[in-house]
Amino acid sequence: MLLIDLSKFFEMIDQVIECIPNISEGRDTLKIKAITDVVKTVEGAMLLNVDPGKATNRTVITIAGNPVAVIEAAFRLVKKASELIDMSLHKGEHPRFGATDVCPLVPVSGISMEETVKYAHKLGKRLGDELGIPIYFYENAAKHEDRKNLATVRSGEYEGLKNKLSSTKWGPDHGSGVYNENVARTGATAVSARDFLVAYNINLNTTSTRRANSIAFDIRERGRVKREGGSVTGKIITDEKGNPINEPGLLKAVKGIGWFIEEYGVAQISYNLTNISITSIHQAFDKTSERAEIRGIRVTGSELIGLVPKNALLDAGKHFLKKQNRSSGIHEEELMKIAVKSLGLDELAPFNIRERVIEYILEDRMNGGNRKLVDMTLTNFANETASESPAPGGGSIAAYVGVLGVSLGGMVANLSSHKRGWDDKWEYFSDWAEKAQDYKQRLLKLVDEDTNAFTLIMDAFGLPKGTEEQISARKSAIIEATKSATMVPYSVMETAYNSMEVMLEMAKTGLPASISDAGVGAMCARAAIRGAGLNVKINVMDLDAPDFVNKVLADAKVLEEKAETLETEIMRLVHVKL
C-alpha cells in the first residue's frame, strides 16, 4: 500500500550516510563476495568499496546511500556474515570479537550526527532482536560513558567474550546476554555513529622526512614531546610518573606524520583528519603552508586518499574565493574546481570530482543511465516537455521558471560584487549570491520532484482493487499520494516567493547596469508562483480530503497575493532607475 509523505521521501534522498562494516574474513573471496553481494539487493544503497586483508583476515566494506536503505543493507550484510563466518575458527592479526566486528555509520551530507546516532540505535536494536547477536554501542552512539572507546568495548576480543557476557558490567545493549551456541559462532558486533575521516596528504618541495615530520608535529593535535629549552636535542620533559609530556599541536582532530614518497621523489605530510567539522581540509592546507614557509619549504599540492564528501570541497572553494575577496555565490561544480586548483589536488594525478565525491558517485550510479530533467540540454528538455508524455508538465516548468528567475538575481549579485569601486561591498553581494544559489538548488530539485510525484500517483492508481480491503487501501493510497504530490508545486510557490528577496535587494542596491535583470528575475518568480498555483488547484480538484484541500488552497492564495505585491514593488524600483 502506498502511504508516503513525499516531502519526507525527498528529504531522505537528500540525506547520505556511509556504513563501514568490518567483517572477520579476508581470505575466502567466495565468502566475501556472498556477503557483500547482499548490499546490491537494496535499492538506494551502494557498495562503494571492498578492501580485504589476508594478514588481518578482515575485510573493510564501504556502503553509502540514503539512511533507510543503508541500514537495511547493513542488516542484511551482518546477517549473511553471521551465517557464513564461524568465529570459533577465526585467526587474524587485527583485534576482533565478531563475524561483523564493527559497523559504524558516518553522516556524509544532509544529516546531523544526532540523526545518525538514531539510525545506529535502530540498526543495533534490530540486529540484537532479530539475530540474537550481542550488540555494543560505542563512540557517539554509546549509551554508557565507559563504552565510547572501541578498544575498551572490544577488550578481551572474541576469546574473552564468554567472560564479558557473564559480567554484570558488560551486558550488551541489545541481543543475547548469554554465551550460547549462536553467540559462539557469531561473536559480538560493535555499532557506532562517528565522524567522517579524511586521509589527506600534503606535498612539499623537499626530500627531507625530518623536516616534513617537524611540520607535522607543529600541526597534529598530539603535537611533539616537550624538551628543555625548546630545542629538538634538549632533554625530554616528563611527568611525575616518568611519562613524556607532549606539547599540543595547532589543530584539533588531526593525526599526522612526515614521510618520503619514492614514487614522486618528494616528502609528504600524511594527515588523518578525524573530524572535518573541527579541522577542515583547507584549514590543514593553510596551516601546513604557513609552517612550511617558516622553514623555507613550499607546499606544492596535496592528495586526497579515497572519497570525500561534497561539502568538504565546497567549503574549501568558498574559503579560497573569500581570501581573494571574490563572490562565493557560484555553482557548486565551479566551487569545487576552485578547491581542486587551490589545494593542488591534481598535482600528482588528475582529480575527477565525479569519481571522487561521494554524493556524485551515488547520484551517477543510482540514476541508472536515466537522465534527470535538470541534466538535459535546453533543447532536450523542451522536446521532452512537448512529447506525448504528461510529464514533465506545468509543475516542472513552473519550478524551472523559478530557477531562471533567481539565477538572474544571483547574476546581478555576482556582477555587483566585482564592480570597480565597490570593493568594500564584495562580501555583502557574495552573501546575496550564495542565497540565490541556495534557492536555485532547491528549485532545481523541485523540477524533477514534480515528475516523480506524478509517478507515485500513477503507482497508487495501479494498485489492485478486487476486494473491499484492496479498494479501501487503494483509495487511501491515492489520497496520500495526491496530498504529497500537491505539496511539491506548493513548495515551488513558497520557494519562488522567498527567492524574490534576492531580486528585491538587487533592485535596491545592485549594479545599475543590471537593474533590468532583477526585474526579469522577479517576473519569472511571479510566473513560477502562479503556474505552480494552477498545479496545486488541479491536483486537489477531485481530492476527497476537505480539510487538507481548504488549507492548501487558502495558503496558496495568500502566497499569490503576496507575490503580486512584491513583484509590483520590485518593478517600481526597476522602472525608477531605468
List key phrases describing it.
578 residues, seven-stranded mixed β-sheet, alpha+beta, four-stranded antiparallel β-sheet, Formiminotransferase-cyclodeaminase, Chain B, domain 1, Four Helix Bundle (Hemerythrin (Met), subunit A), Alpha-Beta Plaits, 52% helix, 3 domains
Give a short synopsis of this structure.
The protein is of the alpha+beta class and 578 residues long.
The class by helix and strand makeup works out as alpha+beta
Tally of strands: 13
Q: Return the CATH class of the largest domain.
A: Mainly Alpha
State the major sheet. 7 strands, mixed
Rg from C-alpha positions?
28 Å
How many H/I helical runs? 19
What percent of residues are in strands? 5-15%
Q: What do these coordinates show?
A:
With 578 residues, the chain is an alpha+beta fold. It folds into 3 domains: 6-193, Formiminotransferase-cyclodeaminase, Chain B, domain 1 (2-Layer Sandwich); 198-353, Formiminotransferase, C-terminal subdomain (Alpha-Beta Plaits), CATH 3.30.70; 371-577, Four Helix Bundle (Hemerythrin (Met), subunit A), CATH 1.20.120.680. Helix content is 52%, strand content 13%. It is built from 19 helices and 13 strands. It has helices at residues 6-14, 29-37, 67-84, 113-131, 150-153, 161-166, 181-186, 209-219, 281-294, 310-323, 332-343, 353-356, 358-366, 378-385, 394-417, 426-461, 468-509, 515-539, 546-577, and strands at 16-19, 22-23, 45-53, 58-65, 100-109, 135-139, 189-193, 198-204, 224-225, 246-247, 254-261, 266-273, 299-305. Strands 1, 2, 3, 4, 5, 6 and 7 form a 7-stranded mixed β-sheet that branches. A 4-stranded antiparallel β-sheet has the order 11-12-8-13. Strands 9-10 form a two-stranded antiparallel ribbon. A hairpin with a 4-residue loop joins β11 (254-261) and β12 (266-273). The relative contact order is 0.08.
